[in-house]
Every structure is written in C-alpha cells, then in structure tokens.
C-alpha cells in the first residue's frame, strides 16, 4: 500500500523527536490532544496513524491506545495537500473532504500542527506546494492568534464564508446587513476581529472595522465567545449576565446566535 501520508507522519515524528525537552513540553501544552488519522488512498485502502500531542509526543502507525480526542478521516491526496499548505484544513472540512469526530476545536489546530514540518516536506518534494495555491494558507493564518481560542472560530467562519457560492454569500450579506466588531479579551490582552456582513460579498479579518464605524461592537471574554459560537451559551443570556457588552445597534446582538450557527457547519460523523 502506497500512501503520501507515510513520509509526512515520519517528518512529524522526526520533528517531535528532535525537539528539546522544553520545546516538546511547550508543544504538548499548546496542542494538548491525541489525534487519530484514518487515511484512504486512491485504491480504497485505509491506514491509520495516531499522534499523541497530549502526554507522550509519540507518532505511531495504527489506532490510538485509548480514545483519541479527535478522529479525522481524509483522503490521502487531501491530507498531503493540507500538510504541504496547498489546502487549508478549514476549507477541506467545509468542502466535505475532511470528516471529523470528537473535539471539533482541535481540528482547527491542524494547519499549525504541520507548519513546523513544511520546510522538510518542501525540500524533499519541491513541487508539493505550487505557487498558485499559496494564498490559501495565509488567509486562515492571518486570523489565527496563539493562545486565543476565538481566533480559530473566526478562521472557521472565514473558511465557511469563502466556501459559499456567490449567491449564498450575497444572501448572507443581505440578511445580516451589519458589520460586527469583536473585542476579544484573552490572557490580559484584547484582540480585535471584524465580521463584515454588509459590504461587498462579506469578509472576516483581524483588526478594527476598515469601512468606518462598525454597526455593533461586542466586547467579550475569549472562552465566552467560544461557548457562544459553539452553541453552549446564548448571546442574550451572556448580555444579561454582563458577560457580553455591546455598543451600537443593540438589536444586532439578537442576530449573533443565528449568524454564528449558520456560518459554521457541523462535522460529518
């Protein structure tokens, strides 16, 4: 059985094994998850790899010992494209090419997971990441902030928006008719993201509103926003509890739950 994924997992293993104890401990602390990958090649054959970035840092062929935090099923070619940076994991998921079971938030860490091994992969196979496809990775990366869980949500929303057809995007903008600015508090600092569902075909980016004053500016703690986006918390309840502050058009807060839910598709189990 031939798999493009095999040398990629070997590169990940080499990278983890070569890290100093401090670097390895830092990586385990940041990712804190056990991944199981079920990879299918063009012949319909399947191989499984386990990546323990929670306790041991081990990369092994075969199923994880114990229940993994997240199980990912993906075609060999798609996995290779994600690892090389040719395709963003979020876009592959939104296109139905990557199936996820378990902790959905961990799937958003995939692009960062492969970042360290991409130089080695490129050196071994220069044609792995064509220049024409390069813009796909920076788009999601520009929204990702280490230590800010909400940034992964905005990356997912960005992927969801760009996975829509022109008609779907126009309809989403028409329904929302608003620019939301989010001031996310995390680790003693504030990080700003803007969801523009008013101008053009919509956009998501890091930083304050680029088109003047946002229709609604929302200030919220990082974990509260994650709970809101995942449906574990209700926007109106967070507002009433003083955990969500809004400046501008107050009524737009009532649209938040629906907007966030509509732009994040659930994994296929």
Automatic annotation (TrEMBL):
Name the UniProt record assigns to this protein: SCP2 domain-containing protein
Pfam families from the UniProt entry: SCP2 (PF02036)
GO cellular component: cytosol
Domain (SCP2): residue spans on this chain: 20-115, 166-261
InterPro entries: SCP2_sterol-bd_dom, SCP2_sterol-bd_dom_sf
Record organism: Allomyces macrogynus (strain ATCC 38327) (Allomyces javanicus var. macrogynus)
């Amino acid at each position: 059985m031939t798999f493009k994924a095999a040398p990629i997992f070997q590169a990940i293993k080499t990278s983890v094994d070569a890290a100093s104890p401090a670097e390895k401990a830092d990586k385990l602390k940041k990712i804190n998850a056990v991944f199981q990958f079920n990879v299918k090649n063009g012949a319909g054959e399947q191989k499984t790899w386990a990546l323990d970035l929670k306790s041991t840092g081990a990369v092994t062929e075969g199923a994880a010992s114990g229940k993994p935090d997240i199980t990912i099923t993906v075609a060999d070619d798609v996995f290779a494209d994600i690892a090389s940076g040719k395709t963003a994991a979020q876009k592959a998921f939104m296109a139905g090419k990557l199936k996820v079971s378990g902790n959905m938030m961990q799937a958003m860490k995939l692009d960062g997971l492969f970042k360290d091994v991409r130089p080695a992969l490129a050196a071994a196979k220069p044609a792995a990441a064509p220049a024409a496809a390069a813009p796909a990775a920076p788009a999601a990366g520009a929204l990702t902030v280490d230590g800010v869980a909400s940034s992964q949500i905005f990356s997912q929303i960005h992927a969801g928006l760009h996975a829509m057809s022109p008609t779907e995007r126009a309809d989403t903008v028409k329904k929302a008719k608003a620019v939301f600015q989010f001031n996310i508090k995390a680790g003693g600092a504030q990080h700003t993201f803007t969801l523009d569902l008013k101008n053009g075909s919509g956009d998501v980016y890091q930083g304050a509103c680029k088109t003047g004053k946002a229709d609604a500016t929302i200030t919220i703690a990082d974990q509260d926003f994650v709970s809101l986006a995942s449906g574990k918390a209700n926007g109106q309840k967070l507002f009433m509890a003083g955990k969500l502050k809004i400046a501008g058009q107050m009524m737009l807060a009532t649209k938040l739950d629906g907007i966030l839910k509509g732009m994040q598709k659930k994994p296929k189990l």
